[in-house]
TrEMBL record:
GO molecular function, one term: GTP binding
Record NCBIfam families: ribosome small subunit-dependent GTPase A
GO terms classed as biological process: ribosomal small subunit biogenesis
Residue ranges constituting the EngC GTPase domain according to the UniProt record: 72-221
Amino acids binding GTP: 112-115, 166-174
Keyword set includes Zinc: yes
Residues reported to bind Zn(2+): 247, 252, 254, 260
Cofactor(s) it depends on: Zn(2+)
Gene behind the chain: rsgA
Protein name as annotated: Small ribosomal subunit biogenesis GTPase RsgA
């Protein structure tokens, strides 16, 4: 019996990495009975006679799981946002940050194509980068030369299982292709009338990059807050968590409550207005969500 991590799932086979070796395994029938589907990223116990005839006996508890791509135990989401083409969007970034934080995944913000900006525009994007750093996020800025982006990102990927996510058309596949040229992920041109890239990847695989593992499929194609409750939302804005210690009421939602320290911090400029506006938008969206039965 041995333990390992599933790095690829394809046609009913699971490829388990254990002590530098990959074993092709099938799942035991007991999984189907218990409605457990092993996922890429799962830590498992398996038994194998040789490299092609193994059986997964047990799936260990997951710390998180994503639906798209179907993957478990993600440590980090590298959120790729371009400074230009498409333009940098704090609204979309905040949406991704909330989703990532709600899954207990550490976000790393990567702003690409900085070299396409004029001087005054660079200052504006750098101001945003500094603000996000002040909230406690890691932010990396790179040029449109994808190779440079990888050099910047490499140290952050060490000993982690990462998934790329972010704006469509910003070059997530291009980044992955530079990391591992033999991937040849189909990079679709931005369809200009939509301003969105076409998505072209199929099964999921974890690939070795330096000393870490990266999913070869970008994550979070759905950006709806289906699993988040209104009372949990403030926890996913770190600067609000800090300010809310001074709120008069515990469980303050920072909307209509009196003596709310978060609203005061917005007034004084300690919390940027755009972050609070996005918070209000997301709060309303979750409140208006149709109940699921």
């Amino acid at each position: 019996m041995a333990e390992g991590k599933i790095i690829k799932a394809l046609s009913g086979f699971y490829y388990v990495l254990s002590e530098g070796q990959i074993t092709q395994c099938r799942g035991r029938g007991v999984f189907r009975k218990n409605k457990v589907t092993p996922l890429v990223g799962d830590y498992v116990e398996f038994q194998a006679e040789n490299e092609t005839e193994g059986y997964i006996l047990k799936v260990f508890e997951r710390k998180n799981e994503l639906v798209r791509p179907p993957i478990a135990n993600v440590d980090q989401a590298i959120l790729v946002f371009s400074a230009r083409e498409p333009d940098f969007s704090t609204g979309l970034l905040d949406r991704f940050l909330v989703l990532v934080e709600s899954k207990e995944i550490d976000p790393l913000i990567c702003i690409t194509k900085m070299d396409l900006l004029k001087q005054d525009e660079i200052q504006e994007v750098e101001k945003y980068a500094e603000q996000y750093r002040s909230f406690g996020y890691e932010v990396v800025a790179t040029s449109s030369k994808t190779e440079e982006g990888i050099e910047e990102l490499a140290p952050y990927m060490r000993d982690k299982t990462s998934v790329f996510a972010g704006q469509s058309g910003v070059g997530k596949s291009s980044l992955l292709n530079v990391i591992k040229p033999e991937l040849e992920l189909k990079t679709a041109m931005i369809s200009s009338h939509l301003g969105r890239g076409k998505h072209t990847t199929r099964h999921v695989e974890l690939i070795h990059i330096g000393d870490g593992l990266v999913a070869d499929t970008p994550g979070f194609s759905s950006l709806e807050f289906t699993d988040i409750e209104v009372e949990d939302l403030p926890h996913y804005f770190p600067e609000m968590v800090e300010a809310s210690e001074q709120c008069k009421f515990r469980g303050c939602l920072h909307i209509n409550e009196p003596k709310c320290a978060v609203k005061k911090a917005v007034e004084t400029g300690d919390i940027p207005g755009y972050r609070y506006d996005h918070y209000l938008t997301f709060h309303q969206e979750i409140k208006d969500r149709k109940p699921r039965y």
